[in-house]
Amino acid sequence: MEWLRECGLDCVDEALCVFVDVVEGENSCTVIHIHSYCTADGLHRETSQHAVVYE
């Protein structure tokens, strides 16, 4: 997570989620929520991305 912050992203949040898999039962995953407000061309745009990392 720290390397994402070092790349100049304005806000990086991490949360734990639990989901139910029909075959394997209950599993957990990490949801990474990334906000970036400044682009490489110097313009300010709000973007938001989600990445789900299954454990």
Task: Give a written overview of the molecule.
- The protein is mainly β and 55 residues long.
- The chain has one domain.
- It has one helix spanning 2-6, and strands at 11-21, 25-38, 44-54.
- It has a three-stranded antiparallel β-sheet with strand order 1-2-3, with no helix packed on it.
- A hairpin with a 5-residue loop joins strand 2 (25-38) and strand 3.
- The protein is elongated.
- The mean pLDDT is 57.
- The total of helices stands at 1
Total discrete domains: 1
Indicate the percent of residues in helices: under 10%
How would the global form be characterised? Answer: elongated
Largest sheet: 3 strands, antiparallel
Question: Mean pLDDT, rounded to whole units?
Answer: 57
Radius of gyration: 15 Å
- Topology, number of strands: 3
Task: Compute the separation of the termini in Å.
Answer: 15 Å
Secondary-structure-derived class: mainly beta
Strand order of the largest sheet: 1-2-3
Quick synopsis:
The protein is mainly beta and 55 residues long. Helix content is 9%, strand content 65%.
What is the element layout, followed by pairings?
Layout: H1 2-6, E1 11-21, E2 25-38, E3 44-54
Question: Which short descriptors sum up this protein?
Answer:
single chain, 55 residues, mainly beta, 3-stranded antiparallel sheet, 1 helix, 3 strands, elongated
